[in-house]
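Researcher: For the record, we're logging two predictions in this thread. I'll number them. Prediction 1 follows.
Model: Prediction 1, sequence and structure:
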Amino acid sequence: MNSWKLSKHNNRKTKKASLLATLAVCTTLLVHAPLASAGQPGIFVAADTYFTLDNAVFTAGSASSALQFTLKMHNGSSGSVDFNGYGVQVVDGQGNSFPAKLTSKQSARVDAGKDQSFSFIAQTAAGLSASDLKVRLFSWDSGAPSFMQTIGDLPVSTAVSGGLDPSKLMLLSMKDVDSDYSQDAFVAMRLGQSYKVTQNGTTYLYTDLYVRNTGSSNFQIPSSLLFRLKGTDSMTYSGALVSGSQETLLPNKLTKLKIRTAVPSNAESESMTLEAYYSNSAEERVLGSVPLSGMTAAVPLGSEQPYSMYGTDNGLKLNAAKAIAVKQTDGTMIQTTVNVRNDGSAILAIPDLDAAYQIGDESLGAAVQDLSVASGYISPGQTAAYTYSVVIPEGIDPNSVKLALMEASGSSGSGSSSGSSSGSSNSNNSGSSSNSNSSNSSNSNASGASGSSSNTSGSNTSANSSTTGSSNTTSTNKTSSTVSVSSYPVMMVELKGIQQSVSASQQASPYTLGSPFTLSSNGLIDKNLEISLVELHMHENEDLGYKTAIGKYKITNRGSGTLAMPNIGTELVNSSGQSFAGVKQTSTATTIMPNTSYIVSYSYLLPTNETGANLALNVIDPKSAAPNKLTIGSYQVAVQNESSDKVISFYPFEVTFHAFSIATMYKSGYVYELNLDLEVNRKETVVVDQNFSKMEFELVDSLGRVLGSQSMTFTGTSKLITGSQKVTFSDIKTEQFDNNMVINVYETIETANGPAKRLVKQLTDKPS
């Protein structure tokens, strides 16, 4: 045993004789530490007093690693327990021990029936993982060769948050940066995404950093904590905080910081490292570093990602849904639609998003069309859409362009923080450190590992057994230097694979519904196949902030043999030149027999201000490769008005609603029964199989809530037929009877983007 440990122990021997006698009895019962509670390891020091391990943060550095953790004592006995009777160390799988330094300052005496947490940090060797480490609790024992008696070990892996790469974490002591901060003012910093964008001729790398205050009281990032990027050539580039620096960090709450760093345009961001450091006249010290590798790539079109990482998105998801390039006389117009979906459980403000298209070392600001819901808020399960457009110079391949989705500074949809405070603090975190009485200073940070130094009188890491500890918190009012920006990126999208078409100003041919298209020969559509548009209807999705158009195409085989079903592409182009790609129904037949016709449906998402009066329908050769899509036919079309009488078209069917009624029953809950008197007629002979559209009945109460839905098909044993039909809505999620029900009748088709609906009729239980 080191001499300082022996001396320290001898000085305490007399004072602790009675306590050690008690501990000696307790430790004989602790050969095996039982579980403190179901699923949580614990170390018992008495039948009703035990320790558990919480809130462990492990970071893996290149030279060393760090572990911060909280040891909680649960005193269920009838008397107080003095934590000064125990020591803590960290051990690895090879038996190597590392000193654990007590960082919190509070009373060492844990009163009867109370819980108390003690925070520690330990520097461990490089190359270790959380699964290699255990926290060891020991008591002082004058009869043991080392004067310590091991009580038990707690595995670190059970207390560390899962799913986090330790190499992307930094654990920093604010007291190392500024002596005015308290001993337990630690932050765990998790690396987020990095985005390389050009703004006003300068290339910047924006880096998200998610910061959790792992201490027990509030503070702000000190202004002397600096950040920089370091390349493989050892060149460094100073960064500045552009978001989050003014945030007060609450205990156990995650806050997103954003760092902007000017870098050379040819900088390889994947090979850079982010360093946290401080500098003064005497020294420059790097406190932690994380590599940016794997965190800088742009996402491909169609990808979805959280608005921010580690649960701070509040349920918001971003989806780069589609992008279209249309050649014009002055260049190529690019349009990109980004959907924002609320997967959370609360109503959220729609974020203020703009965009810039990145073309090499240049940046072009985008015009934005906001297709969001009008209220400015998005409900759970709801989707808002943004469409961004820009005209790029002629000769630029749209596939080489990137979209930088930008969040306006101060946007209420930022979702900058999440998590809950760990409760009232019992340590004072600001201001100067206070000295404790040497007779009461804790030896809990004397780990027994070789090479550690004694905790001497006046140490500000000790627990004070003669005090109760203040419950008040004081926020250190010091903030990191910042740079003001109007917006910063939240998503980078590669536009490789963008849909492209010829000039939108091309004169479309007049067209009559049902007449065959005259398509350019492309060798992909057999000359014996005849394609026509037989229906085009549009419906407004009030909850989703856009309109849906559904077009039905009849494909007829005029030949004498079976042919492959053509996989045509379609798009609608409005008078403003905006293009809206068609999404084909999920399943279709692969072949079509001679002298038969088959129906294929496509859905289109349109802006809410689209009237559908002057549209161009482009039929696109799906095999034409980027950069240019080949339009093989363009026609003037307009959406059809929905029927206001009893006859509804579901081409090739016509359905007549002669009568209906809604009955209500109560069978362990309300049951609504819709009785229909229908007439179903097939107007033309076309193939209708299980892939054909369905008729959906949606039960809606007087508050606009959907209580249930049922679908019926035009094929199969339970198909819609002429005569009486009964539709039952059971398992209604309401306890109240409502006599003002509305039945929305839809035609639905299944697409790769989910079901597309067309509202064809509304039925009320009080028909006029």
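Researcher: Logged. Prediction 2.
Model: Prediction 2, sequence and structure:
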Amino acid sequence: MQHHRKVLLLSVFILILSTMLFGCANNNEEVVSSEEKSEKNMLTFAWPRDIGEMNPHVYNPSQLFAQSMVYEPLVSYQEGGELKPHLAESWDISEDGKEYTFHLREGVKFSDGTSFNAEVVKKNFDTILNHLDMHSWLGFLSKITSTEVVDEFTFKLTLTEAYYPTIQELAVVRPVRFLGEAGFPEDGDTSKGVVEPVGTGPWVLDDYKVDEYAVFKRNEEYWGELPKEEKITVKIIPDAETRVLAFEKGEIDLLYGEGTISLDAFKQLESTENYESSISEPVATRQLVINSKKEQLSDEKVRQALHYAFNKEALVEGVTSGYEEKADYILPTNLPYTKDNGAAVIDYDVEKAKSLLDEAGWTLSEGETVREKGGQPLEIELMYDSAELIQKTMAEVIQSEWAAIGVKLNIVGVELTEQVQRFKDNEFDVNFFSNYGAPYDPHTFLNIVASEGFGFNEAISAYPNKAEILKQIAEVPQTTDEAQRQQLYTSILTSIQEQGAIIPISYIKKTAIYQKDVTNFTFPANRDEHPFTNISIE
């Protein structure tokens, strides 16, 4: 990695050149024009944390968008869950669903000029499989029995059993993206670091200073469509308000992503009409997870009553200014296999909620504000991430609305790490959660629901058909018949939602705000990546 010498020298050169312009002859004007043009061919955006070590085979703190600029997958995830060829031009799947043969794209070079081929694909897979404990969350990896170089541009994977999400999981940003030979340490073990970030992607890391900036230059030998811009600079600005100020000063061309700018700041900037803005399709569902192992919440009628008892549409409009969208289903319907969810849509109906609680035996005595059953009050706790303003505000609104039907809701803000741990330990009544989005879902979300120790398996404990749901979740990845797979997903998602342990609130969307000279900004279908190939500055 180079340090900031190039940027510093360029800045000094521009300063000297600007000083010399006073009284200079016309022949120097062409030089100034060239320098200005160079600056215009660089896009700058801000990010809250450092890009990390740029190792495609490990996790935090490396940032996913940066990984996707340099390293590429065999398969690309597109709108609506369509899986398209990328470094693999095509693939064949055996009838039993166990063998995957990939026909690799020929003529692809790594950024150092070396060839992309089946040997280097195998080397990447093998170093990942040598650390399966680190990557076991990705389902297909633990099912691989062999990796084989068939010929220079043909690579074969053999699995222990059919697992249909294999192709979809190959589209994720980590860990199955490909490092060039020069990036491997001598022992071939990338778990402890890489020599240099050599990828096949449209960008090359050109200059980098930890916690300050990263400059990516266009890979001029890129096999695909060349990026419009010559360089992209990522300025590391941890403070959200400082990021917005830098953008307003024109030091930043683009602010995008989840959490890089608050919805209030986005709304304010958008209202000035001085900038362009974009909002993505839904990337995930904001959910309430209700723990049916808790006595007060074990009755489906109580869980359904809680769903009827808050005005979801008004809540989402009021808290997110309409930038999120009221969710009718537990997964966004732009994900694969989710469009046919047969769950009934539950609309706001306070009287229905009261009626259901009465039927469940939770009654409200005259002069009282909290319902009781057998001398016990209907009192529950909602846990939220204390750093998440949207969760906090939504919790306060829900607290007020549930009070109107005689439910006492205590809301407690905790650190994210505590929220995650308490959820995993089943130490919660109601918790905020959101699914993973593309390209992970729906199968990853359902795997978590089925797995013990993540909160969901325990949350659906009171479901009379829990065993059948878990059986179907285990069966669906092994299906080789598309119609059967869709039928299973419809059954699973409908049953989970209708019994009320997961209440959809809103569909989360990404926002982007950018200067008016920025054009062709688009959100990728893959939630985690952004190769920045089409974006440009006029």
